[in-house]
Give the backbone structure.
Amino acid sequence: MSEFNKDDYLNDLPDADDLAASSASSAAAGAAQENPAPAAGDSIPSDEGAGAAKPATEGETPANAGGKQAGEGQSAAEHGEAEGEKPADADGKAAGDDTLTPLGKAKKEAAEYLEALQRERAEFINYRNRAAKEQERFRQHGIIDVLTALLPALDDIDRIREHSEMDDSFKAVAAKIDKAFEKFGVEKFGEKGEEFDPTKHEAILHKPDAEAEKETVDTVVEAGYRIGDRVIRAARVVVASPHN
Protein backbone atom coordinates (compact mmCIF):
# COMPACT_ATOMS: atom_id res chain seq x y z
CA MET A 1 0.00 0.00 0.00
CA SER A 2 1.22 3.47 -0.95
CA GLU A 3 1.81 6.04 1.76
CA PHE A 4 -0.90 8.79 2.27
CA ASN A 5 0.24 12.27 1.35
CA LYS A 6 -1.79 15.16 2.86
CA ASP A 7 -0.57 17.82 0.47
CA ASP A 8 -1.52 15.82 -2.59
CA TYR A 9 -5.03 15.24 -1.18
CA LEU A 10 -5.62 18.93 -0.49
CA ASN A 11 -4.41 19.95 -3.92
CA ASP A 12 -6.88 17.58 -5.62
CA LEU A 13 -9.92 19.19 -3.77
CA PRO A 14 -11.98 21.74 -5.82
CA ASP A 15 -11.89 25.44 -4.91
CA ALA A 16 -14.68 26.74 -2.60
CA ASP A 17 -15.47 29.83 -4.74
CA ASP A 18 -15.91 27.60 -7.80
CA LEU A 19 -18.35 25.40 -5.90
CA ALA A 20 -20.44 28.43 -4.80
CA ALA A 21 -20.61 29.83 -8.35
CA SER A 22 -21.61 26.49 -9.82
CA SER A 23 -24.33 26.05 -7.14
CA ALA A 24 -25.82 29.51 -7.89
CA SER A 25 -25.92 28.85 -11.64
CA SER A 26 -27.57 25.46 -11.11
CA ALA A 27 -30.29 27.03 -8.90
CA ALA A 28 -31.02 29.77 -11.46
CA ALA A 29 -31.33 27.22 -14.23
CA GLY A 30 -33.73 25.10 -12.19
CA ALA A 31 -35.92 28.12 -11.42
CA ALA A 32 -36.06 29.11 -15.07
CA GLN A 33 -37.20 25.59 -16.02
CA GLU A 34 -39.95 25.55 -13.31
CA ASN A 35 -41.28 29.09 -14.03
CA PRO A 36 -40.76 29.85 -17.70
CA ALA A 37 -41.06 33.49 -18.74
CA PRO A 38 -44.54 34.35 -20.11
CA ALA A 39 -44.96 35.13 -23.68
CA ALA A 40 -45.74 38.57 -25.00
CA GLY A 41 -49.48 37.79 -25.35
CA ASP A 42 -49.89 36.03 -22.06
CA SER A 43 -51.52 38.01 -19.17
CA ILE A 44 -49.88 38.18 -15.82
CA PRO A 45 -52.17 36.93 -13.04
CA SER A 46 -53.07 39.55 -10.45
CA ASP A 47 -52.27 39.03 -6.80
CA GLU A 48 -55.72 40.37 -5.85
CA GLY A 49 -57.49 37.81 -8.03
CA ALA A 50 -55.37 34.98 -6.70
CA GLY A 51 -56.00 36.11 -3.16
CA ALA A 52 -52.30 36.12 -2.34
CA ALA A 53 -51.05 38.72 0.08
CA LYS A 54 -48.04 40.77 -0.83
CA PRO A 55 -45.25 39.98 1.60
CA ALA A 56 -44.11 42.89 3.64
CA THR A 57 -40.55 43.90 3.27
CA GLU A 58 -38.40 45.19 6.04
CA GLY A 59 -39.29 48.74 7.10
CA GLU A 60 -42.86 48.48 5.73
CA THR A 61 -45.90 48.15 7.98
CA PRO A 62 -48.80 45.92 6.89
CA ALA A 63 -51.95 47.79 5.98
CA ASN A 64 -54.16 45.89 8.40
CA ALA A 65 -51.70 46.51 11.24
CA GLY A 66 -51.64 50.24 10.48
CA GLY A 67 -55.43 50.33 10.36
CA LYS A 68 -55.65 48.50 13.67
CA GLN A 69 -53.21 50.89 15.27
CA ALA A 70 -55.08 53.87 13.83
CA GLY A 71 -58.37 52.47 15.14
CA GLU A 72 -56.86 51.89 18.53
CA GLY A 73 -55.47 55.43 18.59
CA GLN A 74 -58.80 56.89 17.51
CA SER A 75 -60.73 54.89 20.16
CA ALA A 76 -58.22 55.93 22.80
CA ALA A 77 -58.61 59.57 21.76
CA GLU A 78 -62.41 59.25 21.86
CA HIS A 79 -62.16 57.55 25.24
CA GLY A 80 -59.98 60.40 26.50
CA GLU A 81 -62.43 62.97 25.21
CA ALA A 82 -65.28 61.05 26.85
CA GLU A 83 -63.41 61.05 30.13
CA GLY A 84 -62.57 64.74 29.76
CA GLU A 85 -66.17 65.68 29.09
CA LYS A 86 -68.38 66.24 32.13
CA PRO A 87 -71.58 64.16 31.86
CA ALA A 88 -74.83 65.97 32.01
CA ASP A 89 -76.06 63.76 34.88
CA ALA A 90 -73.16 64.92 37.09
CA ASP A 91 -74.40 68.47 36.90
CA GLY A 92 -78.15 68.31 36.52
CA LYS A 93 -78.54 72.00 37.10
CA ALA A 94 -76.31 72.95 34.18
CA ALA A 95 -78.04 70.46 31.91
CA GLY A 96 -81.46 71.68 33.02
CA ASP A 97 -80.52 75.33 32.46
CA ASP A 98 -79.39 74.53 28.95
CA THR A 99 -82.70 72.87 28.08
CA LEU A 100 -84.90 75.58 29.65
CA THR A 101 -86.32 78.46 27.69
CA PRO A 102 -85.69 82.04 28.86
CA LEU A 103 -89.14 82.08 30.46
CA GLY A 104 -88.45 78.77 32.20
CA LYS A 105 -85.12 80.06 33.50
CA ALA A 106 -86.84 83.18 34.84
CA LYS A 107 -89.50 81.09 36.60
CA LYS A 108 -86.84 78.82 38.08
CA GLU A 109 -84.84 81.79 39.41
CA ALA A 110 -88.02 83.31 40.85
CA ALA A 111 -88.81 80.01 42.63
CA GLU A 112 -85.28 79.86 44.05
CA TYR A 113 -85.50 83.46 45.30
CA LEU A 114 -88.90 82.75 46.86
CA GLU A 115 -87.56 79.67 48.65
CA ALA A 116 -84.57 81.60 49.98
CA LEU A 117 -86.86 84.43 51.12
CA GLN A 118 -89.12 81.98 52.95
CA ARG A 119 -86.12 80.44 54.74
CA GLU A 120 -84.87 83.88 55.76
CA ARG A 121 -88.34 84.83 56.98
CA ALA A 122 -88.63 81.66 59.08
CA GLU A 123 -85.20 82.29 60.60
CA PHE A 124 -86.15 85.91 61.38
CA ILE A 125 -89.40 84.82 63.06
CA ASN A 126 -87.51 82.32 65.22
CA TYR A 127 -84.96 84.96 66.13
CA ARG A 128 -87.71 87.45 67.00
CA ASN A 129 -89.44 84.91 69.25
CA ARG A 130 -86.19 84.07 71.01
CA ALA A 131 -85.41 87.76 71.45
CA ALA A 132 -88.88 88.40 72.90
CA LYS A 133 -88.47 85.54 75.37
CA GLU A 134 -85.05 86.78 76.40
CA GLN A 135 -86.39 90.31 76.81
CA GLU A 136 -89.25 89.11 79.01
CA ARG A 137 -86.87 87.03 81.10
CA PHE A 138 -84.55 90.00 81.65
CA ARG A 139 -87.55 92.17 82.49
CA GLN A 140 -88.71 89.72 85.14
CA HIS A 141 -85.21 89.55 86.59
CA GLY A 142 -85.20 93.33 86.92
CA ILE A 143 -88.59 93.35 88.64
CA ILE A 144 -87.51 90.56 90.99
CA ASP A 145 -84.37 92.45 91.94
CA VAL A 146 -86.35 95.61 92.76
CA LEU A 147 -89.04 93.69 94.65
CA THR A 148 -86.47 91.73 96.66
CA ALA A 149 -84.81 94.98 97.70
CA LEU A 150 -88.17 96.45 98.79
CA LEU A 151 -89.50 93.36 100.64
CA PRO A 152 -88.52 94.60 104.14
CA ALA A 153 -90.32 97.92 103.55
CA LEU A 154 -93.42 96.11 102.24
CA ASP A 155 -93.46 93.83 105.28
CA ASP A 156 -93.35 96.89 107.58
CA ILE A 157 -96.26 98.46 105.72
CA ASP A 158 -98.28 95.24 106.17
CA ARG A 159 -97.52 95.12 109.91
CA ILE A 160 -98.53 98.78 110.34
CA ARG A 161 -101.68 98.15 108.34
CA GLU A 162 -102.61 95.17 110.52
CA HIS A 163 -101.68 96.33 114.03
CA SER A 164 -102.21 100.10 113.95
CA GLU A 165 -104.26 102.74 112.31
CA MET A 166 -102.87 104.46 109.23
CA ASP A 167 -103.62 108.03 108.27
CA ASP A 168 -104.99 108.81 104.84
CA SER A 169 -101.68 109.99 103.37
CA PHE A 170 -99.86 106.82 104.45
CA LYS A 171 -102.68 104.67 103.10
CA ALA A 172 -102.44 106.48 99.75
CA VAL A 173 -98.68 105.82 99.51
CA ALA A 174 -99.10 102.13 100.39
CA ALA A 175 -101.87 101.76 97.77
CA LYS A 176 -99.68 103.36 95.08
CA ILE A 177 -96.87 100.93 95.85
CA ASP A 178 -99.21 97.93 95.58
CA LYS A 179 -100.60 99.18 92.25
CA ALA A 180 -97.11 99.75 90.88
CA PHE A 181 -96.15 96.14 91.58
CA GLU A 182 -99.47 94.89 90.16
CA LYS A 183 -98.69 96.81 86.97
CA PHE A 184 -95.51 94.74 86.54
CA GLY A 185 -97.36 91.47 87.17
CA VAL A 186 -96.40 91.03 90.83
CA GLU A 187 -99.12 89.25 92.82
CA LYS A 188 -99.35 89.24 96.60
CA PHE A 189 -100.74 86.11 98.31
CA GLY A 190 -101.17 84.59 101.76
CA GLU A 191 -104.35 85.14 103.82
CA LYS A 192 -105.68 83.78 107.06
CA GLY A 193 -108.01 80.78 106.72
CA GLU A 194 -106.79 79.47 103.35
CA GLU A 195 -105.59 75.89 102.99
CA PHE A 196 -101.91 75.29 103.67
CA ASP A 197 -99.95 74.63 100.46
CA PRO A 198 -96.27 73.73 100.91
CA THR A 199 -95.51 74.93 97.35
CA LYS A 200 -96.35 78.54 98.26
CA HIS A 201 -96.45 78.60 102.06
CA GLU A 202 -93.55 78.32 104.49
CA ALA A 203 -94.74 77.05 107.87
CA ILE A 204 -92.71 78.63 110.66
CA LEU A 205 -94.95 77.14 113.37
CA HIS A 206 -97.61 74.40 113.65
CA LYS A 207 -100.34 75.08 116.20
CA PRO A 208 -102.75 72.30 117.22
CA ASP A 209 -106.39 73.24 116.76
CA ALA A 210 -109.26 71.06 117.95
CA GLU A 211 -111.65 72.59 115.45
CA ALA A 212 -109.34 72.27 112.43
CA GLU A 213 -110.16 69.44 110.02
CA LYS A 214 -107.08 70.06 107.85
CA GLU A 215 -104.01 72.23 107.92
CA THR A 216 -104.96 75.87 107.37
CA VAL A 217 -103.24 79.24 107.61
CA ASP A 218 -103.85 80.70 111.08
CA THR A 219 -101.56 83.76 110.94
CA VAL A 220 -99.66 85.42 108.09
CA VAL A 221 -96.31 86.61 109.37
CA GLU A 222 -94.96 87.76 105.99
CA ALA A 223 -96.93 87.86 102.77
CA GLY A 224 -95.79 85.95 99.72
CA TYR A 225 -95.10 87.37 96.26
CA ARG A 226 -95.02 85.79 92.78
CA ILE A 227 -94.87 86.70 89.10
CA GLY A 228 -97.08 84.42 87.09
CA ASP A 229 -96.29 80.86 88.19
CA ARG A 230 -92.91 81.80 89.61
CA VAL A 231 -92.88 82.27 93.38
CA ILE A 232 -90.47 85.04 94.39
CA ARG A 233 -90.95 84.50 98.10
CA ALA A 234 -93.20 81.99 99.86
CA ALA A 235 -95.64 83.29 102.44
CA ARG A 236 -94.40 82.69 105.99
CA VAL A 237 -97.34 81.52 108.08
CA VAL A 238 -98.44 79.86 111.31
CA VAL A 239 -100.36 76.67 110.49
CA ALA A 240 -103.31 75.38 112.48
CA SER A 241 -103.14 71.55 112.43
CA PRO A 242 -105.70 68.93 113.59
CA HIS A 243 -104.88 67.01 116.84
CA ASN A 244 -104.50 63.67 115.05
